[in-house]
Amino acid sequence: MLDLLTLTNFKAFAQQELRLAPFTLLTGLNSSGKSSVLQALALLRQSYESGDLAPVGGRVAGLLLNEELVQLGTGQDVRHEAYNDSTGPHIGLAVEGDGATARWTAVYEREADHLELLPSEAQDPRDPSELLPSLFGPGFQYLKADRVSPQVSYPRSHHAVTTRGFLGAHGEHTVNYLRTHQDEPVVGEALRLPDAASATLLAQTEAWMQRLCPGVRLVAEDIHGTDAVRLGYHFGSGFSESNQYRPTNVGFGLTYVLPIVVACLAARPGSLVLLENPEAHLHPQGQTWMAYLACAAAASGAQIVMETHSDHVLNGLRLQVKNDRLAADGTAVHYFRRKGQTTEVVSPVIGPEGTLSEWPEGFFDEWENSLDQLLD
Ligand SMILES: Nc1ncnc2c1ncn2[C@@H]1O[C@H](COP(=O)(O)OP(=O)(O)O)[C@@H](O)[C@H]1O
Ligand SMILES: [Mg+2]
């Protein structure tokens, strides 16, 4: 598990430490720096996967800004605009976790999209995947806010879903992942719903999806003779079972949330799951269930870092803590707000009863603000 992320001169942050817990919630106004935290982790991951973080054969180690997971631009886009002498001119990322600490310092170059890393004397000689398996090992998922929309067919990539076990940064490999892994059991006991037909990934995915849409059933299958797969929905069972519908003829929300559900259910102890706005297109009760699902993944040993605007997700997390489904110290909440050109972070602490230690101004207070005006 990752315990601490330190960002230096990275986008909206001059110098920022962030404690990471089994379930970390990133909240705050639009454009306050939440996604940048996920991007920092994704940047390290894609640099490692491309062989640039720990290169062999005389290649120069570097951060690769534009790859599969994030496309951050050039040095100028990434370095904090208001950097000053106290932090120096370079971009720094440091991660503590899995019993190790790793630091990367990238040399600023305005137009470069490969930022060379300074050789660090203190750097552990082990391969990054041994040093920080949570970040660089298997089980990593990163689902961005812009997920693939409902489609008639989806790509079929053996490499993505079997070799890497990856759903795609937009969830584009989810249907093929579900098709390939549907009969495998869900590992985390807390993730298994007792009313599901069985413990398999497909049955549990259906059961969690039924919390969002009662009666929904799923089919993930190949399209014979093509390199594509398809997703089908049907509703009800037995005599009242509906025809199979294609995703484009079923509400947007169901298909949009499917990658999030599969990412949580497929998570194993040691998996790192980064989720951007999982609440998008979900009704309020569904958003609470989404928090329950992510809590169950965290309680099963995975690590969730989630960006959200949803007070239902926050309250769902607090309720799971109150109901002893997740330890209070297994949570971290960070509220981001802009202060001039940099972002500052306030971190209210969730207590064992689900209470919050503080409510900074602007932190999920819109209900109260509106109610005050309505009651005035
Ligand atoms: N190089 C940079 N220097 C300073 N601030 C930056 C830089 N790049 C982006 N930002 C700031 O970061 C913010 C966007 O961050 P982002 O993580 O996308 O926000 P959120 O996810 O909270 O909506 C914007 O306010 C933007 O001004
Ligand atoms: Mg964002």
Heterogens = adenosine-5'-diphosphate, magnesium ion
- What is the count of DSSP helices, taking H or I runs of 4+ residues? 11
**Which word captures the global form?**
globular
**What value does the average pLDDT take?**
95
- How is the biggest beta sheet arranged? 6 strands, mixed
Order of helices and strands: EEEHEHEEEHHEEHHHEEHEHEHEEH
- Percent helix, as a range, is 25-40%
Task: Tell me the span between the first and last alpha carbons.
Answer: 48 Å
How many beta strands in the DSSP annotation? 15
Q: What is the alpha-carbon Rg in Å?
A: 21 Å
Portion of residues in beta strands equals 15-25%
Counting helices, strands and paired strands, the structural category is alpha/beta
Spatially, the strands of the biggest sheet line up as: 8-12-13-3-14-15
Low-confidence stretches: none
